[in-house]
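Same chain as my last thread, 912 residues:
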Amino acid sequence: MVRSLTGISCGVVIGAVLPHALCVVAFPVTALVFCGLLVGVLFLRVRDNRGSNFSVMFPSVLVGAALALASNTVGSLAYDSNLLRVHLRQAGSCRVRVRGRIVQEPSVTGRGVSLEVALQDTLVSSESEEKLVLPDVRGWVRVRITRPRHRSEEVHCRYGELTGVYAYGDVVDINGIASLPEPPRNPNAFSLPTYFREQRLHAELTADIKDVRIVARRVGNPVVAAALWLKRRLSAVYADAVSVPSAQLAMGATLGDRAALAGKTFRNRGILALFERAGISHVLAVSGLHVGIVALALYRCGRFARLSPKALTPVVIVALCMLTVMTGARPATVRAAIMTSLAFTAHAWCGMKPRYAGFTGVGVAGCVIVLWNPLLLFSPGFQLSFAAVLSLLLLTPPLHRHLRSLTGAEIAFVSLWLCAVLTVMYRGIHWLFTPVGGIVSVLGFALAKKTGRKLNAEHPSRAAMLRMDRLPRGVTLFIAAQAAIQVGAILPLSAWYFGRYSVAGMFVNFAAIPLIALFVQMALLTGIAGMLPFIGGWLAIPLGFVTSALGTGFFWLAWIGAVLFPYPAVPKPTLGGVAAYYCGLALLWLLCETSHEPVETTIAADTVTSAMPPRLRTGLALALGLLAIGSLVAGHYSHRPGRPSLTVLHIQAAPRRPAYPACCGVAADGTGFLINGGDRYVAERLVFRFYTWAGVMHVPEIVLNTEHTRAGLGAVAALQDSLRIATCRCPAVTVEALSAKLKKKDAAGIRIIENAAAPTGANVAVAIVAEGITTVHLGQCRITVLTDTPRVRDIDALETCDILVLPWQVGAFEYGGTSKSTATFRARVEHVLEKCRPGCIILTDGRTRNGFDVYDWCRRLPWNPRLFRTTDHGAITIEPGPSGYRLIGYAPKLNVESNRTISRPETLYTHR
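reply #2:
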């Protein structure tokens, strides 16, 4: 019965994916296909006279598809018909006064605090004196409260009340600006509306701390309040008994307080950046690893006390529930707690083996989460967590068998193959993410193993001297599990979602996972001992010393991994490429499991395919092979450049945070060049994601045509390792200043050169005309980029151009400590326009200090140039042609039928 439940749950999850992965119109056709498969499976079951979970999986697919489609339809209708969303969609941002209850622990950042509030009453202010009351508004909104700049003690006291864990359950009255999240206007950028829809957040409010008033206290769930009280006590014990920054690591690894490590450094490097580069940032997210550590620790303690598994299972489930609530009930923790609780229940109460219990936990947890919110299927956290668990359950047994079967020359040749793969990762990891590279690497492994097996047959005595099965089974099992997670989850999904792959993670995790297991257990033991009355303080001191030592060792491990191993960028594959990868991986797994006769091991007593009918197994193998070949043919990487192009990104400038135009260029040979690039935030969120989407892995140079740090010094520091930036070109007057500033940003390895009008790539040439003025030649197209207002003598050196890129607001440099007047700025901008006389003008959203809006000036030009704004048209790509150029915009479009925004390229203008 439990195995049937596993099949039903997996079928429901698969069926829930289909309506979203396929077009809704094609859903009836898909249903007919699966009905045909159901009839075939039932026929095979009768003919073979053997039971199979697949006979219950296929009808479950249909049921899951119908339930997910209905749930998504009802949820989308309720989400889109929310009165506040309807009003904001019609009126735009407006001032509202809301009253609601804080339903989650506040999230504190360097800029302020974020609250998730369940609405109870809403009052909307309009331009007239009337007030619009929306009493039926229900749902959640996210409230951003900026850090107070006032010195008033009352204001700081109120801000402190909202940033603590005790703020959960408070009823607050907020007067702020409500708005809907804006869709992305740059290629491959993060979609905030999609995130809001997945989390069922209806709007975003921005308020000042003076406009927030606490109406009632502690009206939330008492269980949640108790868990948060426990979290506060544990944090206090960590702060007293554990040294810095190991105390902050304990808060992040056991309490989910990732913000505790923000701003902390180790050997002059940011700890969060070290963990990310070393591939061990997952230790700061309380997920399956941490939940499994806590559950196994409790289970072993109970078994040591001679308690039965049936009596231990409720205790473990209650502890996991408290841990989930204490860490903020984040989706990753909830998923891990559900899976672990179901797995323990199936093992203890139903007598299932650990592997099948894991399948039951994954299937039922996925079924519950998908039916509750089907949109979570497409979130990176959901896919990474479930892919990691499934890879651990499915790929570990065959990898473990092959690993323990290696002997003699096989070990030598497989080691040589592994060294070759690592060498490729160091020199050009993007080659492995191409179809040819993947096939060659698989064939190389097969050839190495076959050659080693042949040599072992010729010299059996030497082969018997070196055998992997002589190692402890736990060691080889751990190695196989790590390889399974890397191959099945980390490798493809990191390229798809993040555009980076941590080479260090393949090796550092072998030591990091056992070390973090010890650290989490010692940290929890220290916190629990420190809360004991009378003797808690004395017990926490020696335990805190051990916890501090383990934390220091973990920091050293992260630092070694970040220094010795690269953190390269990888091209973003297409959906066909990812499908081809997983189809090929499933085919290899099926072939390995089919050719394997069941062997009694500690991880599995039989194989999953042993209960599959032979005809179904053969048909499934053929289907996977055809799907892999078809996806491989169509799975070339997106936007492979065949001609040079220049993309002007849309950068939303914040108040008191000026931005400059950032232009990402792609040469015909696949390399890139960057003009400015913004600060670190812009570089990582916009520039880097654009280059991985475009398939650019190498940016030989970046042009910084201003001395201001906002223009591109942050981009150089953030991109130098991933995209291999070699040189930085700048005007002669700013070489020394930029060199000094780059050293402070840990980018001293970048070679800074003065301006030289050398070709950047094939049919591409970038030159700095003067400080603030850069020209780009794309074939026959001449582009002038104005970073800021130049000097008068520099304007006279300008020539006519086809396209002029201007900031929406133009300001001025300060020469000699004095700034020019606004009238002088306008005269200079008008002089620039007269000298260039462009046919097209691209206005970016960049703003500079002391700036003024130049849009009206451009509209009144006598030669009537075409105006394009990134605010309206999104990022604009300039592609030259044989006799002209073309402008392509990436502005999101609103689909009226589905009420969703769709981002796709659109040709704005073609000049011939």
